[in-house]
Amino acid sequence: MDLSHELAIGVDIGGTNTKWGLVNHRGEIVRKGELRTDAHEDVNDFIQALYDTLQPIIDEVGDGKVIKGMGIGAPNGNFYKGTIEYAPNLHWRGIIPMTKLMTDKFGFPCLLTNDANAAAVGEMMYGAARGMKDFIMITLGTGVGSGIVANGQLILGHDGFAGELGHTCIRPGGRLHWGTGLRGSLETYCSATGIVLTAKELLEQSSESSALRGIDDETLDSKKVFELAQQGDAIALETYRFTGQVLGEALANFVMFSSPEAIILFGGVIKAGDLLMNPTREHMEANLLPIFRDKVKLVFSELKEADAAILGASALVWEIKE
């Protein structure tokens, strides 16, 4: 069967930005773009903005092409129900019937899963996890998400919410999460937001000279911390060392849970490279039982930052039965 005329839309809804792509069966993203998620307090306004962005492109490629459907990766996305439920990083509260709203607006089938699960599927099909049956994908961005694949199957759990490793408690009684109200979760330390919080705490606890002290609290972000770490700023370097320590300790727990072949790190935070990877690997290995040591590959995603989730989300479409 000639499938070259078929395209799927993959949508990755993040806490800050939403990225989309038109994808063919070979996993080639033929068109892509993005829009702000956090600019839309109401989900219907967001869907309208996405429609206004996508529909002209759908019309443009429509000559000889068929849009088979849309796949969505979203925080707290429930594959079984097609809903986004109580996502702490989104403005939209409660339970959002996202696939129904999208189908009603666009007029074609829509499926949804957790954003990190979508990234894991994309990595398994087209990236560093090709050929692997057991791996964990950790997404490090505005939040910390995860997708767990065991025995070749994405772990969804009985209710569709398995794999919230970013909300596991890694520092009991630790930082208060800004969205969940829980304390000590991995996300409060290893997300982009967590990195900034660590930098601020270190500045308060130390009198050491740092260029970070000259940056206004409102404008300080993880990118600036990274840039100063590259320049050798002591507080910035310690921020990434500590972030890697916390992440490595958490990953050791995850390894002893599912014994993956690899853990793949994905998202904007990994741009820090060895500043993050070296302490992460050191503290992961140091906290493993001997039977797990030096067995698990710890690698960065091979896909472009936006592509893994887009590709994974779009792959859902090919599962829609005619």
Automatic annotation (TrEMBL):
Tell me the leader sequence span: none
Name of the molecule in the record: ROK family protein
Q: Which Pfam family is an annotated match for this chain, by its short name?
A: ROK
**Organism of origin:** Flaviaesturariibacter aridisoli
Task: Please name the Gene3D superfamilies in this protein's record.
Answer: 3.30.420.40
Show the taxonomic lineage.
Answer: Bacteria, Pseudomonadati, Bacteroidota, Chitinophagia, Chitinophagales
| InterPro entries xrefs | ATPase_NBD, ROK, ROK_cs
Could you say which protein family the record assigns here? Belongs to the ROK (NagC/XylR) family.
PANTHER family linked: BIFUNCTIONAL UDP-N-ACETYLGLUCOSAMINE 2-EPIMERASE_N-ACETYLMANNOSAMINE KINASE (PTHR18964:SF149), ROK (REPRESSOR, ORF, KINASE) FAMILY (PTHR18964)
